[in-house]
Amino acid sequence: MTITLRKAYRQxxxxxxxxxxxxxxxxxxxxxxxxxxxxxxxxxTTADSSSGATKGHDDAYVIGADDILAVSVWxxxxxxxxxPVRSDGKISLPLAGEVQAxxxxxxxxELELTAKLRSFISEPEVTVIVSEVRSQKFNVLGQVxxxxxxxxxxxxxxxxxxALAGGFRDFAKQKSIYVLRQNPDGGQSRxxxxxxxxxxxxDSAQNVKLQARDTVVVP
Length: 219
What we know:
The chain is of the alpha+beta class. It has helices at residues 2-38, 42-51, 106-117, 158-164, 195-199; strands at residues 68-73, 81-84, 90-93, 97-100, 126-132, 137-142, 148-151, 177-182, 188-193, 215-218.
């Protein structure tokens, strides 16, 4: 009887050991698989970090006089700085000297600065951001309550300009308003605007979107 019990005990012990040997590798495999799913290679990490990067400027925007530009040269803090665009359209930057900024997009200016700095810095990486838009303005003159210069937005129209200027004075000729616009060749165009017709829904095409340096004249 005693011998039979001992055999049974030994068999149970062997079964327990086999179960442990089978369970432990499975748990190790599960941990390994979990590690593979959560651990990223350096390339994957770089790709993830770069996928959320966004451009700091709009390539369609054209820089103008009085704009404020933030020029950053990677790992070159002595060259990086915030500079105003002067009335002659130029900026001054260490090593690069004086550079024409007005009339260029931020991306075009980046390329020009990169070319100029390449003589002094190995593989310069330049970023240009318009930190303050000051060149995009229009004027309102004549018989309005507050004639002056106003900031231009993408949606500014002639009616918006009149509203910003506080409306008409008593003797304003509301049918004879016009917009003076600068042409690329240096001349001016005169765009008529009949306030009475526009507010009645007639010939609403007269209510044009304003452009930088437009002047709304209310006789």
